[in-house]
Amino acid sequence: MDISSLKTPALLVDLDKMKTNIKEMQRRIDVLGLSLRPHTKAHKIPAIAQMQIEAGAKGICTAKLGEAEVMARGGIEDILITTPIAGAEKIGRLVQLCQQYPACNVIQVIDHSYHVEEISKAAKKAGVSISLMIEVESGQQRCGLELGDELVGLIRNIQETKGVEFAGIQAYSGHLQHVKGLESRNEKAREAVVAIFDFIHTVLAPQGLEPAIVSGGGTGTYAAYQGLGFTEIQAGSYLFMDAAYQAIGDENSETQNSQFDSALKVLSTVISKPNSNRAVIDAGMKCLSIDLGMPKVDGEGVIGYKSGGDEHGILSSSEGVLDLEIGQQLVLTPSHCDTTLNNFDVLYAVSDGKVVDQWVIEGRGRSD
Q: For the whole model, what pTM was predicted?
């Protein structure tokens, strides 16, 4: 059907552009001699994860255990859970995930001896072994161990404990993904992790503790680490290229990134026009995430969007008059794909203005 038949607000993806983005990122990572492990928190859909794997991705990342459960149920067989877990309920679910999908390579990120002790205890009781990856602080000041004796001790702890295995190191500098300008962004990204690789080469390797996997990087920084020792890149937002990522710059522009196509859109309808320079659409904060800024209204002319609350978006024009009518449909580019996807039940795949497929966003709300 034509997209004009959809109930609004509706979440759309240009299928052709998305497929092109998948191929292009895989090509770029291949050229760098690295593996791609896309972060599926961007889309939360097993069918799209499968497309990425079929294009050459090593496996996938999920932010949370709940997302990993969705992906494993959807047939994905190599999953890195990038956030540590705590508590008997979560650890029990991790063990159950490994039991239920024995063919799936599940890796859980940790950063404390608590995780080793509690996960190994549950894993031994269940008769399974769980791979653990240690997150190392790389500038974000979120999770992650500082370099030093504690990191060495934690690796040895894993290696000496039954029920767990040492998979490698995660060094993800999420705070640098949106630094403006390619040169500045890459420079900051390298600076954030250089000490980690020095530590690996001078401290870990001589003791036989060198990690087999070093995982990190993202859509903004995937090309920043040549020669440092990353083995895989966790980029995810390249799939959709939201408005925030479009504005970070690339090889040819300090303010516009054209490496990948803008594929994710929200279809909305004008529901009110109180005066000549104010219109209201049915897309508010319950569908358009604004944590990374306001969405952009596609098309000709300069139309500004501001939040009108949960259900409303307010449009205005710097040119003084809005050439819009009640009932007219508009297309907007979200500022942040991850959180926008979490607001919808269904993603409609569109080609040439027609809906050609649709996917339930199975990972929606799985922040557990």
A: 0.96
